[in-house]
Design a protein that fits this description.
Nucleotide-diphossugar_trans; 11 helices; alpha/beta; hexosyltransferase activity; globular
């Protein structure tokens, strides 16, 4: 077998129909330099029978277990502990790879976070094509998240931090923030649609997602920094931010003009309606 590049980790609980779709999409891959790890949370809906049949049909390395866990991130952590690949990829039950050549197309060049695009399916007739930004900063990641179904994460990033099981929805976002923003790891966007994602899962709960993000952010930053981040966010996503799109990217400009921009922003906000400001603030917590 060629060098093991990817560990695909699938977490499942009582989702046999979604599991079948996921397993079929993995089984169809023409690339063979991967292993598959399935963590089932003691399902009672015939999921384990499906996994046993799948085990008989595949030739690539497969590990699976079925036992109670403490939630999706506990299951993902169990998968991480069993993984041998250079990169880890999480494709949970209900999500599918876009086609049989996806794993062949990946430029896995040693960058720590490699991420592509996804097709986010809301219903049988509604979906969104999600393409994350090529350049990531803290303001962008406060507003959005890298969908884990689009991310190939270097194994080394899990040596010192697994997913935080205290949170039920945002732990993959926390891992991204810590790795890319706090630790400054390398990252790269690839313009490939990696997966079709089930948009009806737990992370679609906007109210809960917002609650968890606020809690984590307040734990990480003192109030003075939170106030500064809030000002910078409002500037970036206001009309003023678009007035100077090119020159405002230079470090020299940012240093000299920041106070002027913030003053103009405060004046601008005096003439903004409360409704508009509330709408802008709520967008911080969209999942993509």
């Amino acid at each position: 077998m060629s060098r093991l590049l990817i560990s695909i980790i699938t977490v499942n609980f009582n989702n046999k129909h979604g599991l079948i779709k996921t397993l079929n999409s993995i089984k169809s891959q023409k690339c063979n330099s991967f292993e598959h790890i399935i963590i089932d949370a003691n399902s009672t809906d015939e999921s384990t029978d499906i996994i046993k049949q799948y085990e008989k049909e595949v030739t690539y390395p497969l590990y699976w277990t079925s036992e109670p866990d403490k939630g999706i991130y506990d299951g993902m952590n169990k998968g991480i502990k069993q993984a041998h690949g250079e990169y880890l990829y999480f494709l949970n039950s209900g999500d599918v790879l876009m086609d049989s050549t996806i794993l062949q197309k990946l430029p896995l060049d040693g960058s720590k976070y490699i991420y592509g695009n996804i097709k986010y399916v809301l219903s049988t007739s509604s979906y969104r094509n999600i393409s994350p930004a090529a350049t990531l900063d803290i303001i962008y990641l406060l507003k959005t998240a890298l969908p884990h179904q689009a991310c190939f994460i270097h194994h080394s990033l899990f040596q010192t931090q697994l997913y935080n099981t205290k949170y039920k929805i945002i732990s993959d976002w926390i891992h991204t923030m810590k790795s890319i923003i706090f630790e400054g790891c390398s990252y790269k966007h690839i313009d490939i649609t990696i997966a079709e994602v089930d948009g009806t899962g737990i992370s679609s709960n906007q109210e809960k997602l917002m609650e968890e993000r606020i809690k984590w952010i307040k734990e990480q930053f003192p109030q003075a920094i939170l106030d500064a981040l809030s000002e910078l966010y409002e500037y970036k996503y206001s009309e003023l931010g678009s007035l100077i799109p090119t020159i405002s990217q230079t470090k020299k400009f940012k240093k000299r003009i920041r106070k002027i921009v913030l003053l103009l922003l405060k004046i601008n906000n005096l003439f903004s309606s409360n409704k508009r400001k509330e709408k802008m603030i709520s967008k911080i917590w969209e999942p993509f």
